[in-house]
Amino acid sequence: MNILQQYGYTQRVSAHFTSHFPDTDLNPARVIRVDxxxxxxxxxxxxxxxxxxxxxxxxxxxxxxxxxxxxxVVVGVxxxxxxxxxxxxxxxxxxxxxxxxxxxxxxxxxxxxxxISANRLDRTLVAARDSGATPLVILTKADLSNRFDSVxxxxxxxxxxxxxxxxxAETGDGLDELLTRAKPGQTMVLLGPSGAGKSSLANALxxxxxxxxxxxxxADGRGKHTTTARELIPLPGxxxxxxxxGLRGFALWEAEDGLDTSFEDVENLFAxxxxxxxxHGPEPGCAVQEALAGGALEQRRWLSYQKMExxxxxxxxxxxxxxxxxxxxxxxxxxxxxxxxxxxxxxFRQP
Length: 351
Ligand SMILES: Nc1nc2c(ncn2[C@@H]2O[C@H](COP(=O)(O)OP(=O)(O)OP(=O)(O)O)[C@@H](O)[C@H]2O)c(=O)[nH]1
Ligand SMILES: [Zn+2]
What we know:
The chain folds into 3 domains: about 5-75, CATH 2.40.50.140; about 85-250, P-loop containing nucleotide triphosphate hydrolases (Rossmann fold, 3-Layer(aba) Sandwich); about 260-350, Probable gtpase engc, domain 3 (Ribonucleotide Reductase Protein R1, domain 1, Orthogonal Bundle), CATH 1.10.40. It contains 12 helices and 13 strands. The chain has helices spanning about 5, 10-20, 120-130, 150-160, 175-180, 200-205, 245-260, 265-270, 285-295, 300-325, 330-340, 345-350; strands at about 25-35, 40-45, 45-50, 60-65, 75, 85, 95-100, 105-110, 135-140, 165, 185-190, 230-235, 240-245. A 6-stranded mixed beta sheet has the order 10-9-8-11-13-12, with helices on both faces. Strands 3-2-1-4-5 form a 5-stranded antiparallel beta sheet, with helices on one face. The chain has a two-stranded antiparallel ribbon with strand order 6-7. Helix 3 crosses helix 7 (about 245-260) and helix 10 packs antiparallel against helix 11 (about 330-340). It starts with a helix and ends with a helix. Residues about 210-230, about 245-260, about 320-325 and about 335-350 have low confidence and may be disordered. Bound molecules: guanosine-5'-triphosphate and zinc ion. Guanosine-5'-triphosphate binds near residues 140, 168 and 226. Its main location: cytoplasm. Its cofactor is Zn(2+).
């Protein structure tokens, strides 16, 4: 395997590259990491550091002009095969921010040493599906499974048809299975909250200390950010790991968590509606309609709110049957669950 292949250069990528850059003088290279003003590239003959290109992000395939050997230059970026992006809190107009390019597997890291955040998991599953890559839920710290025994079952339920692998960086359990899920040439990114064990997993997968792992602050179970730049790391077996602190630590998550509060102004209006079960349509005394008419609430913002509600509702509908089934609820219990599900926003507020 040459260096390019270690970083995911497959027949498929090669075909895309030559169709997009027919000029045979241009060479394929992959962005390993982006630093201020410079990017690190994997090219056929080795690792290069070149001047940054405004459109190139980690994981991108770029066209390299090597005609001046001392001054290799990135002259173009191949259209991305997949894109993991942050959508700004359901603002339909804002440009999404690209977080990772050309990822095949989005590994959603869920630590089992703390209670699950259902909201976070749901939203990350949606973002992962949107990316065009295959989502894979990775449970970490399996050796600590005695702490919260519901986490595994609940994660499996919420994951639905998405695969779940249970791992421990400590004991090595599940690492081989995870490596077989990532085929040679595939790129896998790890997403998850701080302290979830992503760096430890990366270390264990690579089999050597590639990232500094930091001790979790004991008091709140949260980690400190120990990795400073996202980068690609070749794995034994031919797959590539993308370790992305910016993305994994807060980017997607912050947007998601922000949702709970970002529509606070809208939700505060509901208390002013005449009927407690107001659908905020044509019924009399609707505070939302009044706010819209009076200009206190922007139409666009109300549409964004409704869009988010619909997306969450459909997610919930898809999940409910499996979840109830898995929990072996009888029909009366199910009916009760349906009522609870209707009030999904309250559900999401549960810790
Ligand atoms: N017992 C046990 N502890 C683990 C395991 N994996 C990680 N940890 C511990 O969990 C803490 C956080 O692990 P990290 O790998 O730094 O977590 P991270 O997700 O990379 O965190 P950030 O860099 O903040 O995003 C560390 O104290 C690790 O030692 C595991 O499999 N078992
Ligand atoms: Zn209303």
